[in-house]
Write a structure and sequence with these properties.
The protein is of the alpha/beta class. It is 37% helix and 20% strand.
């Protein structure tokens, strides 16, 4: 497995060279992460708190850790001190917990709000009504230790590229719609995290600023 060659091939295929690449390193051994690091990768995506916890001390200090999986509220405290970005904030309850843990250690934690864009019920995330309800809540304005940097979404797992494109386009439209609203200063919408190994090119065409790629870099799990 030539990780460096895979990385070059992925980067070369990018529709948008400005798009950030998150190397999804979940289940991969630390040697593979170090190889990717040597090849220039600094952003690594993990989906389990336990795994990110043991890998973090093993990697150089300028490694940026992205929590990309479903995060349980009771696990936030373990990654709060060092996580670079939490992609999957899928409920107001979780956002409040992240804020609480950030407050305890006096750290503003950057997050993305996960939006439910897929037709599959198994995916997590806010729908538009829940989002508006949260923004309208007076308590929302008191969140002092989170920074909402954008949105994240996962498309339906399907061969139908038109459907995937439609879902990504919908997320981008919501992103633009929210950007036109007056939102609190801690909501700075800059990133749309959408697109994985199978659909990142479509995602980039539809406005993604951040793609999460695992198997195309590290090989199949």
């Amino acid at each position: 497995m030539d990780i460096k060659a895979n990385l070059l091939a992925v980067k070369k295929s990018f529709q948008n060279p400005e798009c950030k690449l998150i190397a999804v390193s979940k289940t991969k051994p630390i040697e593979a992460l170090k190889e990717a690091y040597e090849a220039g990768i600094r952003d690594f995506g993990e989906n389990k708190v336990q795994e990110i916890q043991w890998k973090q001390p093993e990697m150089p200090t300028d490694t940026r850790w992205h929590m990309i999986g479903h995060l349980q509220s009771n696990k936030v405290k373990y990654i709060a001190p060092f996580v670079h970005l939490i992609h999957g904030v899928d409920s107001y309850k979780l956002l409040k917990e992240i804020n609480k843990q950030g407050k305890k250690i006096d750290r503003v934690i950057p997050v993305l709000l996960q939006i439910h864009i897929a037709e599959e019920e198994t995916k997590f995330g806010f729908d538009k009504a829940e989002l508006n309800e949260m923004f309208a809540d007076p308590d929302f304005l008191t969140l002092s230790h989170v920074q909402i940097k954008g949105l994240m979404g996962m498309a339906t797992f399907t061969e139908n590229q038109d459907q995937v494109r439609k879902e990504f386009r919908g997320l981008n439209q919501l992103f633009e719609e929210l950007k036109s609203k007056v939102l609190p200063p801690f909501v700075q919408l800059e990133e749309i995290s959408m697109g994985m190994s199978g659909d990142y090119l479509i995602a980039q065409e539809e406005g993604s600023t951040m793609v999460r790629i695992g198997s195309a870099i590290f090989g199949a799990r």
